[in-house]
Amino acid sequence: MAANMAEVTLIDALTMAMAWELEHDPGVVILGEDVGVNGGVFRATAGLQKRFGEDRVQDTPLAEGMIAGISIGMAAQGMRPIAEIQFMGFIYPTVDQIINHAGRMRNRTRGRLTCPMVLRAPYGGGIHAPEHHSESTEALFAHMPGIRVVIPSSPARAYGLLLAAIRDPDPVIFLEPKRIYRLNKQEVEDNGKALPMDVCYTLREGSDVTVVTWGAMIFETMKAADQLARNGISCEVIDLATISPIDYETILESVEKTGRLVIVHEAARSCGVGAEIAAIVAEKGMYDLQGPICRVTGYDVVMPLFRREMDYLPSVKKITDAIGATLHD
Amino acid sequence: METIADFEVQYSQFLDPEGKPSSDIPELAKDTDTLIELYRAMTETRVFDTKAVNLQRTGKLGTYASSLGHEATHVGVAAAMLKGDVMAPSYRETGTMLSRGVRMEELLLYWGGDERGSDFADTKNDFPYCVPISTQCLHAAGAAMAFQLRGESHCAVSLNGDGGTSEGAFYEAMNVAGARNLPVVFIVVNNKWAISVPIEQQTATETLAQKAVAAGIPGIQVDGNDVIAVRHWVERALARARKGEGACLIEAVTYRLSDHTTADDASRYRKKEDVESARKVEPLIRLRKYLTDLGVWDEAKEKALLEDAADKVDVAVQKYLNTPKPPVEAMFDYMYQDLPEALEEQRDHAIRYADTNGGEHG
Description:
The structure holds two protein chains of two kinds.
Chain A: E1 5-8, H1 10-24, E2 28-32, H2 48-52, E3 57-59, H3 64-76, E4 80-84, H4 95-102, H5 105-108, E5 118-123, H6 138-142, E6 148-150, H7 155-167, E7 172-177, E8 186-189, E9 201-204, E10 209-213, H8 217-230, E11 235-239, E12 242-244, H9 248-258, E13 261-268, H10 273-284, E14 294-298, H11 309-312, H12 316-328
Parallel strand pairs in A: 2-3, 2-4, 4-5, 5-7, 6-7, 10-11, 10-13, 13-14
Antiparallel strand pairs in A: 1-8, 6-12, 9-11
Chain B: E1 10-12, H1 32-57, H2 71-80, E2 86-88, H3 94-100, H4 104-111, H5 135-150, E3 156-161, H6 168-179, E4 184-190, E5 193-194, E6 197-198, H7 199-202, E7 219-223, H8 227-242, E8 248-253, H9 272-280, H10 283-294, H11 299-321, H12 330-333, H13 341-352
Parallel strand pairs in B: 1-7, 2-3, 3-4, 4-8, 7-8
Antiparallel strand pairs in B: 5-6
Helix pairs in contact in B: 1-2, 1-3, 1-10, 1-11, 2-3, 2-8, 4-11, 5-6
């Protein structure tokens, strides 16, 4: 085992990646509410202010639109800000800055000014959180041109993809599935190696059905795949990882092999990212399909408070049933 | 009860509408070369502006936001800045941008529907026009934070209108600038109108300068039609910021003599008499009178300046009109540093269908 190899959680891996980049790139600055002394409400920036100083890890006033706006200003002048929005439910004031400026700066100045920034936010349900703390609205950002939306689903991918996001010359919305922040540990080498964005990660090879998912839903999906395997059904599980732009090629190649597609996401169904994946497979993989495309998603309702949130979320049973249905159709 | 906080707002004017100097007029007002240079920049801005409106009226330019009447504020702000500073304008700061070194043909390209207009050849770090109201104030604050972190002596300046002071971003930018002691100066160009909404309906405060009080930074109101006052106070604010003493707000009171944009008709919502009385106090008249009184300006010089400006504008207009439209694939090629594979097919599609759907001249 390498000296800098450690068993870490997803959130530890994020902290490691930010520390690595703060250490190696003087342009990197962390901004956000409570990210300094407090180390972030989920502790993603724990210890970083102490180690790198108050200039590099800054507690900002409480205004999310401001955090995004000053990050854009800094990025356009050569810095690499990593801004934390405390919860995705508070990200919406940033939408003006992200859609009108972050995603447009390079294009509207023909590359004269650019916006190499990362906007991090914990997202998703299943942690018994208060109101506004459980939604999955990645599709809002996936619809915006000029930005990337990235969601890690394991400690190793959290480390590698966050490094890639920070180093990317363009803006990245980096959404962190907070339900799995501390769900499991994985060996991650703190070697500063980024993982590629814009590509899917095939987590399990299979021949009967392709299941595309991302974020915390990886866990339910993998469990469903394990259960189905006992019944002789072979699932290929793909972690989308980069929600925008989508790596269609990997998905289409998989569907060509399996002939069936199920998409699993926490977010509400209508106009969700699953709809986009289904559309592209219908356009380009129609003749490979041997059954209808099926989506297992959150409902088109307001995310329930936590007494009923698990009923809102896709479950192992919902996923296995959907896979069963698409196989027998 | 006791008073635990108190504020006052100061107003400054050095040159009255008749061109008469006040007793406390700064040294700058004796430097006739500088004054003539300011007058030249203001005049060129107006000649350019008039031409741009005419180009729009004759179908050779898209919608354009005229800067008529704002010349003293626009030019005064730029004249106070150093080259290494960074400016974040709204969509009306023609005079500021030209004085900062943005080329006339670049501004025309922008309003003519071509992104290359914001790829400034000479002012590499200034922000481009900003249309979503007051969002640029935050970019200036962010730029100031970058300068502060890197230990550089540059400052950032943003400009927004009176309507923009109602936006959250304006206040959020001032607030963070105050909290972090950022080297940034916020200019509010109070031209009395936010399209059709007059300043009286925009806010209950007596001045916009006092909006600074809530952010804990100094605010001052100046006569935005007096280029000497604008330049002087912006220079003071920048010097202060450069020394590490933090941000300022300067409200420059002027008047929008034009329609909001060429797509607007201000006669629907404001009285002609009001515009006419504002026209009497506009910025060029008073500076011309002052220069004439000083004996350094006359009709011959005025005529020569106007001809020069017209020639300069004509050259820019020709460059603009002779610029072929960008290749269709350019709409893809600046979205990301490297085009994601997912966009390649759409790019090919756009190339295949280029110029098959009509479109503008060029």
